[in-house]
Amino acid sequence: xxxxxxxxxxxxxxxxxxxxxxxxxxxxxxxxxxxxxxxxxxxxxxxxxxxxxxxxxxxxxxxxxxxxxxxxxxxxxxxxxxxxxxxxxxxxxxxxxxxxxxxxxxxxxxxxxxxxxxxxxxxxxxxxxxxxxxxxxxxxxxxxxxxxxxxxxxxxxxxxxxxxxxxxxxxxxxxxxxxxxxxxxxxxxxxxxxxxxxxxxxxxxxxxxxxxxxxxxxxxxxxxxxxxxxxxxxxxxxxxxxxxxxxxxxxxxxxxxxxxxxxxxxxxxxxxxxxxxxxxxxxxxxxxx
Amino acid sequence: xxxxxxxxxxxxxxxxxxxxxxxxxxxxxxxxxxxxxxxxxxxxxxxxxxxxxxxxxxxxxxxxxxxxxxxxxxxxxxxxxxxxxxxxxxxxxxxxxxxxxxxxxxxxxxxxxxxxxxxxxxxxxxxxxxxxxxxxxxxxxxxxxxxxxxxxxxxxxxxxxxxxxxxxxxxxxxxxxxxxxxxxxxxxxxxxxxxxxxxxxxxxxxxxxxxxxxxxxxxxxxxxxxxxxxxxxxxxxxxxxxxxxxxxxxxxxxxxxxxxxxxxxxxxxxxxxxxxxxxxxxxxxxxxxxxxxxxxxxxxxxxxxxxxxxxxxxxxxxxxxxxxxxxxxxxxxxxxxxxxxxxxxxxxxxxxxxxxxxxxxxxxxxxxxxxxxxxxxxxxxxxxx
Lengths: 289, 385
Known about the structure:
Chain A is an all-alpha fold. Chain A has helices at about 1-30, 35-50, 55-80, 90-110, 115-120, 135-160, 160-170, 175-180, 185-210, 215-220, 225-230, 235-255, 265-275, 285-289; strands at about 125-130, 135. Chain A has one domain. Chain B has helices at about 1-20, 35-55, 75-85, 105-115, 145-160, 175-190, 205-215, 225-240, 255-260, 280-290, 300-315, 325-330, and strands at about 20-30, 65-70, 95, 115-120, 135-140, 165-170, 190-200, 220-225, 245-250, 265-270, 335, 345, 355-365, 370-380. In chain B, helix 7 (about 205-215) crosses helix 8 (about 225-240).
């Protein structure tokens, strides 16, 4: 049972990170390689608000969430807007540059020490029994938050006016624009939501294991899960995360822990050889890239 | 044009004069990047100490100039830095304060130029142990193999029941080699090695590794890795309900972390004194750190001060004008009083560039007293061939 709980928590981490990659790619065809840094910025946002609103943890969390959303919108307005009409490669390179800039800025502002936002919020990470296994409180929150985020995004994209516009812009931007949909507003919203979910992943990982520079690399480790599931599919991100997490945890438990670092990429290579557009991705979209 | 030239000459002269009048040493360190938290405090503290020495008149009447270049723990950058320090800055001594993956390119450059290379941040390479490589020296607290010997000796001394020991390391060559050595050593000491977990750097969740380790039911675990892997595995094991004793290596942040974790069965083994000891040198460290405006907790600065004391000791015995050969000769006969920061003096000989004797202490959190206490006082291990 403990193995199943471990799979659920790891899959939730990957899925929460992945949905940012998918949202931006699905709407604007841009692969954001600054997602790890934006995720870490979200975690530092929580660290900052936890100090600012000491004694009011819920206010601090809400402020950090709002901040992450605004940062995403600001990134689009300040940088990615200018990449409209440029090649996809130029936009991807711009995200790499953004990532380098953010990494340097975070070291300058927050230093290199490990921080513990959960402690600053005045909470501790206790352990809870679940069907004969154990899960940390933050682990449980991660699983529930991921479920809530995906349920929210499915509802938003399927039933809300802005969600339908977002899907339309992703499917055919020219036609969507001709129907009067403001593409810049849609793209800004996609960047905002992606940074919000990525930031949320960063905050929860930092609450569970502390906040340090390696968080950026964890952001990149989730990337194979997004590709395995299909880069333009939220269902794919969920399934891809589950596949990668299951492979990793089972190998750690039954074969060799060293293989856990290799297996996401081995699964990815196998998927690229058999079905390059991923389990739930769209073939046409990939051909266009 | 003439005016421009005169401005350039005027601007350049003080630097040239400064370089000629000062002992110049060059550092390649991981000042930024994912592992900077382990290395930047060492460089900053060493620089602050040497600036403090400069303010008191310098060494042998000369200032010490420290040129620091950031390698972000990347081997290629370390190689470029070493070239620049040797060819442009003409340093008399090279320092590495970075991840072990940066060692090889710096060793190559040091050998090419015949300039001594001093490791002041990460694990001492085996080449500094007797019989030592002529150009490589090390003062850092870590001592491959010796650390495991000290930790397992502590476990054996403490254990009242048969020892079932588990091992944990991060998947980096130096940590894996150490934990493999410890596993073999434990068997010769009559312990039962029950499980070994190697986690990749970094990993989003340590629970899967901790689960496997906890399921083997060890009553002791020894972990020798970067701090993140050591402590996250321990915390995950505790959340899984494991109640054994966990022994780890005391990194720069160990003192602060013991107070955060507050677990009476979480032990750290190390060779540097803690602020808890409240030595006269600690007051000096506090004063220097405050004057330099360092942002790190004072407990992070010991290793940097050790490096500062070593550089001071070497340069004191280097007659002016300094050359790499003179610096090397001084390093081969070094004996520095560590002022209580270590269990005894740091001594290098022509054959031993690590130290002739390594002293270990063990600390833990005492829940009853609500403070850090020594679980074992200085124990010496002779460093021989």
